[in-house]
Design brief:
Elements (H helix, E strand, L loop, with lengths): L1 H11 L5 H12 L4 H17 L2 H12 L12 E5 L18 H17 L3 E4 L9 H12 L6 E4 L5 H14 L4 E7 L3 H11 L3 E7 L19 H21 L1
Parallel strand pairs: 1-2, 1-4, 2-3, 4-5
Helix pairs in contact: 2-3, 4-9, 5-6, 7-8, 8-9
């Protein structure tokens, strides 16, 4: 009964519902338009495969495995890259205003702060929100007990390129020469590329919140179980874009 419910759920909720819809359309068109039927069948297969965890893991794992998380990172400052703002209402905790990616990274940054007592420089502006992401993340870190004098915020950046540009500038102004760059594991290759292009500081990558790997379950093969493929494709496109950008700069 449990697995029947899970399979039914996978094919009734979006985006998995597109699989039976397109498959049904393919059957309807098979005698009217073979080309149309084939296109619908192909789209059904792509939706199924593209939204399964097995596929997501396969394309996100190379990004996440590019760097290992150092056991004893050495640096002058922890640089926390934000990953989105949730906002809304008057929350009980500042953590409620953080998108999942930002919350994961900020939690790891707090643990690293407890281990090292290094200052945290939070980087993230307000590209799609009324409040800078860095401000919201810093507020939560203060709730956890990080002193104000251990927190800096870069609140102008709108993407990873500007994260690197503005953060490295702020590091130079504050005399930080060795940064521990903390962000999601899938995001770390692009972040390291851009921060190293800025120059002037030594970088220790600190990837956190890995999504791929672990034991396999039947649900991993079902559609709509994982949309991390979108994250991975965005990162690959970003890396290609910036490599070409610096090649012709």
């Amino acid at each position: 009964m449990f697995w029947f419910k899970k399979v039914l759920e996978a094919f009734l909720l979006p985006p998995g519902v597109m699989v039976p819809t397109l498959a049904g359309l393919a059957l309807y068109l098979r005698r009217r338009s073979r080309g149309g039927a084939a296109a619908c069948a192909l789209l059904a297969a792509l939706v199924w495969i593209g939204t399964s965890k097995v596929f997501s893991d396969a394309i996100i794992a190379p990004l996440e495995n590019a760097y290992t998380t150092p056991a004893r990172p050495d640096g002058d400052v922890i640089v926390l890259l934000c990953g989105g703002f949730r906002g809304g209402g008057r929350p009980f905790s500042a953590s409620e205003r953080l998108a999942p990616a930002t919350l994961e990274r900020a939690a790891a940054a707090f643990k690293l702060y407890k281990d090292t007592k290094l200052p945290i420089l939070v980087s993230g502006g307000a590209p799609f929100s009324a409040e800078p992401e860095a401000e919201a993340a810093a507020a939560w870190l203060r709730e956890l007990g990080v002193p104000q004098d251990k927190l800096l915020a870069e609140k102008s950046s709108r993407d990873t390129f500007e994260n690197a540009e503005y953060t490295v500038k702020l590091c130079r102004e504050n005399g930080f020469k060795r940064i521990i760059l903390l962000t999601s594991a899938y995001h770390i290759p692009r972040a390291v590329l851009l921060f190293r292009k800025e120059g002037g500081v030594a970088i220790t990558p600190f990837p956190v919140a890995r999504r791929s790997g672990g034991p396999r379950f039947m649900s991993d093969w079902l559609p709509g179980r994982d949309l991390d493929a979108r994250l991975a494709i965005n990162e690959y496109l970003g890396i290609v874009y910036y490599r070409l950008y610096y090649l012709f700069l």
